[in-house]
Amino acid sequence: MTRTWQDIAKAKQTALLDSIPPEWRVPTDIMPPDSQLDVTSFPRDSGFFTKDELKYTTAKIPEILQQIHCKAWKAVDVAQAFSKRAAVCHQLTNCLSETLFPEALERAKFLDDHLQKTGKPIGPLHGLPVSLKDNFNIIGKDSTLGFVSWVGVPATYNTVLVDVLLKAGAVLYVKTNVPTAMMIAESVNNTFGRTVNPLNRKLTSGGSSGGESALIAFGGSVLGVGTDIGGSLRIPAACTGIFTLRPSFGRFPTANAKSGLAGQEAVNSVNGPMARTLDDIEFFAKNVVNSEPWKLDPKCLPISWRPVDVGRKLRLGVIWNDGIVVPTPPVRRALKQAVEKLQEAGHEIVDWEPELHQEAMDLLAQFFVADGAKSVRDI
């Protein structure tokens, strides 16, 4: 009997929930009701997490690394705490697409043993849990991108960035939900359903890196990696109040990642960090660039990390209205506040009236389907 797409999706969702250990499943008597919109306080207030688990998952990256590297904390304990918090976040927001909990704990134990034997960390990310958007291939794990037809088709190779992170000592423990083909600004698809915002579960966490933004805003990840073409890092970060960086193409490696619309040579996707602090964003950028990723991805530019001390007044342009979409009052207020802060710091602000945005949008729409959508029709 041929299974319907609904059967396949249901089985995938069930398998994902079954991958959560029973002891990490939220009991019904403390499960927040649907009417509770903001669930970000659940880890702190529910009593479901130990003091140590809260300590690990609320620490910033420098503290996590320092405590692991000086052997005050074990990487396996940190990995378990973040895995549990991610599992809880999924039960409240539907943010995950794949779990690697056993693999993460095995990896963390290996790192602890290595540190104990050698006295040296494997790399600058030794023991740091890192979450990844669904399109980053990890050997043996699906990268469905929301397509039901890609369920049960595990990757046979790693994305280059995955190898870079592993070499640096990272612990990979979850992959996160996206919209179908990663092409809309909210994370919903036929395979996993909709991811919601932990700050208000009636609202979206954005897209296409919306699983990442929900997880980070909940505290289930201290550092995640998403991707962006037309806002897929920036929109989720704005929706959930976290930090991100949409780099120029060629700065971070993108080779061997899975694409929902393959062959986008005119409009290239980039990947970038998502985190709770700006310092954590810089930490990721510096360490990825210092790994010399251009030796693994020929599209990466061979430009070393260069600390910059601006030390001078900047001249910055601001767009109040792009001529296509009028900003809502809260967005306009945020722009105004940013402009005022920059002016107070001595920088010059220049109002910029864009003239070609509609033409650019029209070209973008053509670039997206330059192959007649063949890559999607063949799925």
TrEMBL record:
UniProt keyword annotation of Acyltransferase present: no
Residue span(s) of domain Amidase: 78-376
Gene Ontology MF annotations: amidase activity
EC numbers: 3.5.1.4
Keyword Ion transport (UniProt): no
Sequence similarity: Belongs to the amidase family.
The protein's name: amidase
Native organism: Aureobasidium pullulans
